[in-house]
Write a structure and sequence with these properties.
The complex is a heterodimer of chains A (112) and B (113).
Chain A (H helix, E strand, L loop, with lengths): L4 E3 L2 E4 L5 E6 L6 E7 L6 E7 L2 E5 L7 E4 L6 E5 L8 E8 L6 E2 L3 E5 L1
Parallel strand pairs in A: 2-11
Antiparallel strand pairs in A: 1-3, 3-8, 4-5, 4-9, 5-6, 7-8, 9-10, 9-11
Chain B lengths: L3 E4 L2 E5 L4 E7 L6 E7 L6 E7 L4 E4 L2 E6 L4 E6 L8 E9 L3 E6 L3 E6 L1
Parallel strand pairs in B: 2-11
Antiparallel strand pairs in B: 1-3, 3-8, 4-5, 4-9, 6-7, 7-8, 9-10, 9-11
Classes of the chains: A mainly beta (112), B mainly beta (113).
Chain lengths: 112, 113
Amino acid sequence: DTGVSQDPRHKITKRGQNVTFRCDPISEHNRLYWYRQTLGQGPEFLTYFQNEAQLEKSRLLSDRFSAERPKGSFSTLEIQRTEQGDSAMYLCASSLGGGPQHFGDGTRLSIL
Amino acid sequence: GENVEQHPSTLSVQEGDSAVIKCTYSDSASNYFPWYKQELGKRPQLIIDIRSNVGEKKDQRIAVTLNKTAKHFSLHITETQPEDSAVYFCAASVVPNDYKLSFGAGTTVTVRA
């Protein structure tokens, strides 16, 4: 297992378009997290799953954002009607229970 | 919610010297404190973590200290090497109630050869 993988690595889109990112966690990890990181800042929590259940959503996650983890394995994060302010690095992390979180390389989103 | 402050924002050290990064947190319930290293364009990598039942943890050239009373924790890197140059983030969370990490803003460490 090579760790947490995210796809795509980069996404460039026009304002108003919808985008979807995918995260594949470490195979035995039951918890999956999404964070957003802007330049010069630490990652900010967005949401997390335990198995397929979404347990918490940050206030940062407006109704244009939705995340799923349908079978408790991979997860998708969708942003509808993208805005300039959505430009950021979207990081996924996974953990086994309350253990350390391991991050993927992220998806860098650029809004034109 | 938890608020984590990190200082300094940038740190330049001579190779072989020590580097110290300090973080404070606001939520007295926080009990898990990891440190991540992020090189340019790469993923944050966990380098060391500490739980609130210990005051210090060491792993080779890296050590973390925790003062629960003062609500601050620090990363110490000894005998710095050029490959230590990166952005370092501290974080805090409450386990097992709440696993989300609250991060500091990061410290850019530059090791001068």
